[in-house]
Amino acid sequence: MTTTRLFCTTPRIQFGPRALEHVGREAARLGKTALIVTGRSSSTKNGSLERTRALLAAAGVAAVPFARVESDPSLDTVTEGAGLSKENNCDVLVALGGGSAMDAAKAISCLLANPGPLASLEGVTGLKQGPPVIAIPTTAGTGSEVTRVAVLTDTARKYKLLLVGETLMPAAAILDPELTASMPPKVAAATGMDALTHAIEAYVSKLATPLSDTLALAAIETIGANLAMAVAAPDNLHARAAMLYAQMQAGQAFSNASVGLVHAMSRPMGARYGVPHGAANAMLLPHVTAYNRPACPQRMARIAVALGRCIDGMDLGEASRQAAIALTELAAELPLPRTLGDVGVPTGDLADMAREAAENGSSRVNPRRPSPEEIASIYHELA
Q1: How far is 116 from 314, CA to CA, in rounded Å?
Q2: Are 246 and 137 in contact (CB under 8 A)?
Q3: pLDDT per position as a tens digit, 319-369
Q4: pLDDT tens digits, residue range 116-129?
Q5: What is the mean pLDDT of the chain?
Q6: pTM of this structure
Q7: Which end of the chain has fewer CB atoms surrounding its CB within 10 Å, N or C?
Q8: Angle 137-289-311 (CA atoms, 0-180°, nearest 5)?
Q9: What gap in Å lies between CA 1 and CA 362, rounded to an integer?
């Protein structure tokens, strides 16, 4: 490491069973009227939305629900949420849900402080600080509660738009493993593989640092040991808590070291064909890991060990190949799609998707810089 680097994360993090009970006190520190940004059904069905409203009310904080966030939130949804926040003079945002709800809340805050439209804010440095966000994840995957990134979908352009800046970092995060107990197995599997992708890509990134390495390796080890159990036994609170903690570590790692080729390739799949982000990452991760191996064999061998592989007696080449093998075996245990056909991606579009992925900024910090033809070849492995 030859240059000075800044490490950023959420300044206040409440973690543990019943941590949600802190939401009222956290919100009261920051404002008087909270916009609750959440999904369209799950938080209502499982009671977490009503419970959050009650906890806010008990702390003297008025609540305005915005239960309109879809998977991979659109620019229109964020704009609608910002309008509702303005109408009700909300001065704090509470994000309750998975990565979509948290990214939407961060983007709403950003839009309230910076002149839009949202599409014009991509790539802008020095974004102004909007209302503070309290992030409460109910899935164990995105790590958005500790990142300075918000990912949105521009449905008109079929394009994934990224907002990046320190002002997008939540003011507080509340991680309550009990809130993840209602996650269906397929969601737990996809979000868990998303977290594993974050950790691995941060660890092999050209921007990795000793601090991000420590977090990434810890996350890889914990996810490798707990993901299958968290999916198979939703009532195993120990496994679900371990996954929630590890995905936070993975979020802290990639927010500071970036992601890589898996994300560059998964974004066109989501923007063009609505493939859920975690499912796309899970399909790509073993294949991209195998592609990256020659560029960072020592790190791949360390990943293999973190995933529980014994590499004693192996030379570096054989040891480094164990990472992709371990990932393939882990993915096979989970209820996830395996091929592009399973998720409705036609092979005729792969060349255009490959060009888009090659131009994505995440490809530039990947340990091995891919050509469009190499990316297309990886896509074809999934056909």
Answers
A1: 55
A2: no
A3: 999 999 999 999 999 999 999 999 999 999 999 999 999 999 999 999 999
A4: 899 999 999 999 99
A5: 96
A6: 0.95
A7: N
A8: 105
A9: 20
The pLDDT, as a whole number, for residue 2 is 67
Residue corresponding to tokens 């941060």? 202
* DSSP helix/strand/coil, 180: helix
Residues 12-35, mean pLDDT to the nearest whole number: 98
60: left (phi over 0), alpha (psi -120 to 50) or beta: left
Which candidate, 288, 292, 273, places its Cα nearest to that of 353?
273
* Tens digits of residue pLDDT in 92-106: 999 999 999 999 999
74 DSSP 8-state letter: B
Protein fold of 12-180:
Rossmann fold (3.40.50)
Q: Three-state DSSP class for 328? A: helix
CATH number for the region 185-381 comes to 1.20.1090.10
Distance from C-alpha of 248 to C-alpha of 246, rounded to nearest angstrom: 5
Phi-psi region of 344 (alpha: psi -120 to 50; beta: other; left: phi over 0): left
Q: How far apart are CA 58 and CA 54, in angstroms?
A: 6
**Is the separation of the CB atoms in 228 and 333 below 8 Å?**
yes
- Average pLDDT of the residues in 218-236: 96
DSSP 13: E
Residue 227 tokens read as: 């993901």
Could you tell me which of 349, 300, 354, 351 has the C-alpha nearest to residue 324?
300
d(CA 133, CA 108): 10
